[in-house]
Design brief:
Structural class: alpha/beta
Largest sheet: 6 strands, mixed
Number of domains: 2
Distance between the termini: 42 Å
CATH architecture of the largest domain: 3-Layer(aba) Sandwich
Number of strands: 12
Helix content: 40-55%
Bound molecules: nicotinamide-adenine-dinucleotide
CATH superfamily of the largest domain: NAD(P)-binding Rossmann-like Domain
Number of helices: 14
Length: about 350
Amino acid sequence: MNKFDYMEKHGYEQLVYFFDKTTGLKGITCIHNTTLGPALGGTRLWNYECEEDAVLDCLRLARGMSYKAAAAGLNLGGGKTVLIGDAAKVKNEAYFRALGRYVQSLNGRYITAEDVNTSTKDMDYVHMETNHVVGLEGKSGNPSPMTALGVFHGIRASLMHVHGNDDISKYSFAVQGTGQTGYYLVKMLIEAKAKKIYFTEINPKHIEKMKKECPEAEYVKPELIYGLDVDVFSPCALGAILNDDTIPQIKAKIIAGSANNALQDEEKHGMMIKDRNILYAPDFVINAGGLINVYHELFTYVKERAVRDIEKIYDRLLEIFSIAETENISTHAAAKVFAKNRIETINNLHSNYIPR
Ligand code: NAD
């Protein structure tokens, strides 16, 4: 891969390599676009097979964060850090303090947070060296219930678009995965008196927990979740689950859940869903609740304010569904149009000089 060609093609600003000789920290930070504000994105620690895989992952994830932040109405750009290493061996105080020093060296152009294989505890070490970190212990708290809250409002918006009515009590749901986000979503659906809820899981502990705490929801085997005769299918587990095999099985008129990269192939499967007359709530818009919540840490964190911003996912999705209809494109493509429009409009707005 020619990195400069790739950066030019997709509008990247910066790609930084760093190595710390004391701790063996090896990492890459990518800043995609800072038109709206500092680039924010978590630090992922992964034992990549090769450097090329790590760079590509970092570039791809940073770009995704630009669209996610823009579509969420936040004044943030997109960035990401990947660390190359074995999480079972490399993690300690010095390792994350070394990371904090590299984050600090970017002087606020990039803000980090936890991600795969990094925790709030690790971010506390990062914080010893820099203030450009969010998701700290005792601040905005666990993002998952907030992500689930955004998904809940996104489901309501999808129901409104399809049926002209968003009363949860009139509809049935199939939730795939009841981990950090799916569990809270099911609780919210029960509280809103959903007509029927099915769930599936592969972790026996989570199944037990659900049976104990949410007896209103009915367990089904993983392979049966797609073909259920329900109003909403809510993927809250893995990515790439919307593909050639699964899409033809889906009877629900709405797909709306927390899972990242749910479409195996964004273009092909986005259109396949559209052609089957199913409404898909784009993942990076509907699952932005956790990001919106953590964004509020950059100011004085007030939970009510974060919740109010998360509720706006409802209107944002309605706008995206409307773009998709007008332009005759998939909702995923429409979400990208929506995000890019916001970046471009704010950029143009800032073209005149106003002293502040
Ligand atoms: P999680 O790991 O806590 O939960 C996922 C659950 O899905 C687990 O309980 C797992 O056992 C189950 N699962 C895995 N494969 C399954 C299968 N084939 N069938 C049924 N169940 C299966 O993860 P999470 O934090 O709830 O995240 C779920 C998705 O949402 C991920 O794609 C994640 O990237 C995305 N997401 C999460 C957040 C957040 O705040 N946690 C924010 C944005 C996006």
